[in-house]
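haha ok so turns out i had the wrong file open the whole time. this is the CORRECT one, sorry everyone. sequence first:
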Amino acid sequence: MSFTCKKLLIKSKEKTLLDVGFSFEHSFALIGESGSGKSLTLKALLGMLPHELDVILEYEASYTLVRGESMAFVPQNPFTALSPLSTIEKQFMTSEKNTVHYLEMVGLEEGFLKRFPSELSGGQLQRLIIAMALSIEPKLLLLDEPTTALDEESKSVVLTLIKQLQAHYGFDILFVTHDVETVANLCDEVGIIQRGCMVEQGGVKEVLMHPKEIYTQQLLSSGFRQRSFRT
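then structure:
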């Protein structure tokens, strides 16, 4: 599949907060500093912005953007998407058979359904949220820095899992992050956002190995630039 955001314009009464456009096949990473407009982009696509903001969204895709139907969201902190007072089984919005299926797809056993969120590790919680997201069979999976709070081993497990699930189910990925080292492991294309504007975008190898813009160059560490990419 493919997704083209022809125009995403967000204005408050005082100023323009975001004015971007981007296009990708399969997987796209949006990189920028805190406050650059990454999360604002996700919230706009999800329809989660305050009503007082003016939003213009023009896009082309084989699906209509509907949160909870064609779109699923994996937040940075999985606790924000879960009730601490309910067991896992009560928080899935699908049949028990489907729930068990998606748990198995992310490497969790059926016994996890009887547990409370506080009884799971950070990596287990993130895999759980991915299973919940997949249970609606999305066309577009939005990821808001889903590995930030994880250790390196758990981060690698989660990124590998998402890539494998994408290959299996065929959904598109929009991955928001400030961690450039995770991008090459998950996405084919990347965009660099600064102060609400897209300053550079293209293939991951092209942008991250040969950045054209000064801002992009400043974001990338020398260690990351030396990483090898598959040709």
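The beta strands are 2-11, 16-25, 27-31, 54-61, 71-74, 140-144, 172-177, 189-194, 197-203.
again sry for the mixup
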